[in-house]
């Protein structure tokens, strides 16, 4: 099709008019030129059909490059036609067979004269129409014959229509010029479709509305090439047939085949040049393209021009990536690899960027040469900035293969592992064995020792990690490398922190953040690991929670988030969690999550989500805890979690158990675990979670076994602190469930004697002790527990204590106070998502609406409460409501966007105005309904 349907009809009308003139004895000649796939053949075929319908004598032929060296090849095709009278065909074939090899010009002219005379004898009764497609591919003798015939048909009933490419061979210029000199010759040009032409073409098969909508994108992708346009439309319809909603046409398989078809129909070098452009990415440098393909500059420029004319290229690049991919995929693998390798060398010599050179080297899929190593390493770092993680990995893999064994090769492997770990620890698994061997040979650089050791330990290769550190320690002892000594010290501290049983197998380290090598030069990675390990040890081994909080904040302030500091930062967050500073842990965790939220760092996001889940669990926000834990699990595969799976499953199991999702919790217990898990701290978290699940589902002896096993491990590791896991409190609760209050009391009292002073734990222990006391002594313990827990973060434990206190008051006959406290406990538990606790507290008030209705007191109490409310300011009412519903001061400050100090000041005034001493008296003095109505 030409540029639009109107022009198309004009071309056909012109040919029909020429045919009428030829029928009247005025011979005509038409020369149709256009780029490859511009519609020349379609136009010729359409006219041929009309000529046959008119009863004309039609002779057709098509030029072929394969037959270009065959003398009179096109002439033979013209006369080898079923419409040709047999006697004329025999005569011409005889002339060709007998004289085709005539060597003299006069002899060839005599043969052509005889052939044309035989041809013209047939036009007495009928008009002769000779159509030759792709005449530019014809042999020289046939071109001379056509030119000879053209000169003789001016007064004959003959119409000759030829199609040609605008790209002519040198020897065709004379033929072309002589044809155009003929007074009866008309030249027609075919162009690619304009956007309006595309719309007109589409409207032949689609509605006008759809055609107008698709036209802009179709024109952009196809460039108005009719062949590509038809293929694009075919792909669009194919997608529609498979039921996929496709608003815009997208090139697919048919389009790719059409691109290759265009290239094969063009000049021989067109496909070769297209391959070169596909490899380099564009054709902006004809010189570079010529060097790549070993072609002359003029040939390259002409070929690029041809590709632009047929709409394969636009602005020296492929219009669509599908076209580029199709060309590359159709290139034999060996040839394609060679082109990429040669392109890399040329680009490197030409001063191209490391990224551009590396893309060629990676695409070559060949063994890289030694010179490529620094280029690939530099490109990998640039790729990381652009978040191209897989490409960065490929660069380092190629560099690693090209590098001979030695420290440099080991450093490349270490960097490769750190990037792979960013994508997912499972991705790095296959590289760790080689690194372990290199560490044993002393090839690890000091900056890589701590990160690689932490990766080995994470994957459960505790023995390999310990062996590597010991080997590096021996190597450092025989040399004079303080940096290696410092790195070994940091790694030993890290492994000891993660897996206390390794303590006796590792080199002796100091107790400070820098250990025995305080004067040695330190790399950021081993500093971060040593500092974080010492921070957690301050909580677990030394019981210095306050110092651990200070040190943890220093770690979080000092080190930025990176591949080598991720695990130390996570450990610092966990130190804050274990030390009971959930507010600080939450603030830092959300800040770090914000830093990597828009980046492609699945492992970073997964670990931070796991910590966020643990914080939410300890705050009693079970739904957030479960959501964050499952988010973490979705970021990286379960296999990639290594021993970290213990912490993640622990949080998720406890959250699901607390919400009453027992089936989900039990299913999580079926998850296979790393064998080394119970040699690590995460194993203790898992034991507690499994025990809590067993306790909630009535498997008391199984629960007791898990809690006692945790206690035995902590004792053996000299790390028996409830900050890690309160196994005595858990076991005491289990003994109560088993009906043995004596053992429960003994364990609770033992834990209170041992310390340390932790508000959350002390409150829980007081509740356990209260349940073992006689009724009259129970209330004071429970009141103390509530006092302690109201100032903390654990809302679930607060709900338990409030509920126990309410039941104690009811048992003593104070039904009103008991009812208010139980109702408050229910509300707190409900906000936590702890449905089993809600059912235990108030089975008949499972709906918040029922609870609100039950909260209103009749008669005088309501009137007094309303008068009390009038004495409060609006801000004081808001704080009173939240305090009455069990929110801590920090939670109130967060919800109202004020400081904790402001909340405390308001509560002081509220207590004075309402004549109460503490927040748990608020519901007794003011009903929920009156407060809520005022707010």
From TrEMBL:
<dbReference type="InterPro" id="IPR041664">
    <property type="entry name" value="AAA_16"/>
</dbReference>
<protein>
    <submittedName>
        <fullName>LuxR family transcriptional regulator</fullName>
    </submittedName>
</protein>
<feature type="domain" description="HTH luxR-type">
    <location>
        <begin position="865"/>
        <end position="930"/>
    </location>
</feature>
<dbReference type="InterPro" id="IPR011990">
    <property type="entry name" value="TPR-like_helical_dom_sf"/>
</dbReference>
<dbReference type="InterPro" id="IPR016032">
    <property type="entry name" value="Sig_transdc_resp-reg_C-effctor"/>
</dbReference>
<keyword id="KW-0067">ATP-binding</keyword>
<dbReference type="Pfam" id="PF00196">
    <property type="entry name" value="GerE"/>
</dbReference>
<dbReference type="InterPro" id="IPR000792">
    <property type="entry name" value="Tscrpt_reg_LuxR_C"/>
</dbReference>
<dbReference type="Pfam" id="PF13191">
    <property type="entry name" value="AAA_16"/>
</dbReference>
<keyword id="KW-0547">Nucleotide-binding</keyword>
<dbReference type="InterPro" id="IPR027417">
    <property type="entry name" value="P-loop_NTPase"/>
</dbReference>
<dbReference type="InterPro" id="IPR036388">
    <property type="entry name" value="WH-like_DNA-bd_sf"/>
</dbReference>
